Amino acid sequence: MSSPLTQKISRWFVPIAALIAFAGWLYIAPPGVLGKLDAVGYAVCHRIDERSFHIGERQLPLCARCSGTFTSAAVTLTFLAFTARKRGGMPHKKFYILFALLFLAFAVDGSNSYLYLLKQVTGGLQQIPNLYTPNHTLRLLTGTGMGMTMAFFLFPAFNQSVWRDLDMAPVVDAFPRFFAIVGILLAIDLVILTESPIILYPIAIISPLGVLALLSLVFSIVWLMIMRQDNTLVNFRELGFPLLAGFTLALLMILAIDLFRLQLTGTWGAFPLGT
Question: Do residues 245 and 7 touch, judged by C-beta distance below 8 A?
Answer without folding.
Answer: no
